[in-house]
Amino acid sequence: MSISLSDIRDDRQLRSLTGLPEKQSEKLARIFGEVYEETLQQNYEKAEAAGGRKRKRGGGRKSRLPTAREKLLFVSYYLKDYPTFDVLSAVFGISRSKACENIHKLLPVMNETLIRIGVMPRRRFGNADDMRDALGDIGRIIIDATERAHQRPSDNTEQASMYSGKKKTYGEKHRPQFP
Q1: Which residues are bridge partners to 147 per DSSP?
Q2: What's the CA gap between 115 and 118, in Å, rounded?
Q3: Which of 34, 56, 79, 89 reaches 20 to 30 Å from 176, CA-CA?
């Protein structure tokens, strides 16, 4: 029971597996393939410079995910459904270790692809003005601050400052900080 692009019947099924419509998937696969090839070439050149290459590029066992579209399907399915490596290996007909290896190899490629096409949000800002510039005309934002649990302090004044207000819970709110 393995899945490949030839098994996907229509746009609806592709959307349910990856979250991407067919036209976006094709465009993304083209750019993903370019980024993947650049990454392979960079890794090849690094290994060759270090003297660690035993065979020419392209040698060795061929992948069960031979095309950029198959690789994109694999990583998109993982990002949409976040299955375990056991499930991922069963769905794509590869071993659990290869599923893990492929995810760790393809996630940075996907990240770079999304940055290139301009859909990856900025994660860090140097100061509040940079954040305001990035947000543009958005007047109000809401930040969901989650609470991080801590061990109960033995000092009474520390206990009071760390008490969350929830029953028997001590923690600290994550707050955005600007340098």
Answers
A1: 173
A2: 5
A3: 79
The residue assigned the tokens 């859909």 is 119
Query: How far is the C-alpha of 58 from the C-alpha of 153, rounded, in Å?
Result: 58
Q: Could you tell me if 138 and 147 are in contact, meaning their C-beta atoms sit under 8 angstroms apart? A: no
Find the helix or strand (DSSP H, E) in which 84 lies: none
* Separation CA 23–CA 11 (nearest Å): 9
Report the predicted TM-score, pTM, of the whole model to 2 decimal places: 0.67
Nearest-angstrom CA–CA distance, 153 and 145: 22
Q: Where are the domains of the chain?
A: 5-116
33 Cβ contact partners less than 8 Å away, ≥ 6 residues apart: 67, 68, 69
